[in-house]
Design a protein that fits this description.
This protein is of the alpha/beta class. Helices cover about 30% and strands about 15% of the residues. It has a two-stranded parallel sheet. The radius of gyration is 16 Å and the shape is globular. The protein starts with a helix and ends in a 25-residue tail after the last helix.
Length: about 130
């Protein structure tokens, strides 16, 4: 859904997908969209761009901490990152309702905030399918 929306706005998109089946689906889906590139790799091990970039991602829950560490410690950190993650993880990184070590360590360089709280139905592509 993120790739589709960004591509429809004309953004240059590098979509990173670890799952081979989903990678193949995305490559077919965006085959005629020249400004979308689909990479089959693990974002935790992928080199980050040297140029300015933004990150839009629905982070896999089991690697949230690794991805956050990667982005916040990168030599060239993203200009912006819009990350969908579990509420508990977001609270940990923004230091709310109580301060956490990770929030205190990143605060001088990053302004982490919650800009939207999704309802689980917001992420369903098919309006007929609901939880």
């Amino acid at each position: 859904m993120l790739t589709d929306r960004l591509a429809s706005w004309g953004c240059h998109v590098i979509a990173v997908e670890k799952d081979p089946l989903l990678t193949n689906y995305l490559r077919r889906r965006f085959a005629q969209t020249p400004h979308v590139q689909i990479l089959k790799c693990d974002i935790v091990h992928m080199p980050l761009p040297a140029c300015n970039y933004k990150v839009f991602s629905n982070i896999p829950f089991d690697v949230t901490a690794s991805i956050m560490s990667r982005l916040t410690r990168a030599k060239n950190a993203p200009d912006d990152a819009y990350l969908v993650m579990q509420r508990e993880s977001a609270e940990r990184f923004i230091g709310s309702p109580r301060c956490t070590l990770i929030a205190a360590l990143t605060f001088p360089w990053f302004d982490a905030t919650v800009v939207h709280e999704f309802d689980r139905r917001d992420l369903c592509q098919d309006p007929v399918w609901r939880w």
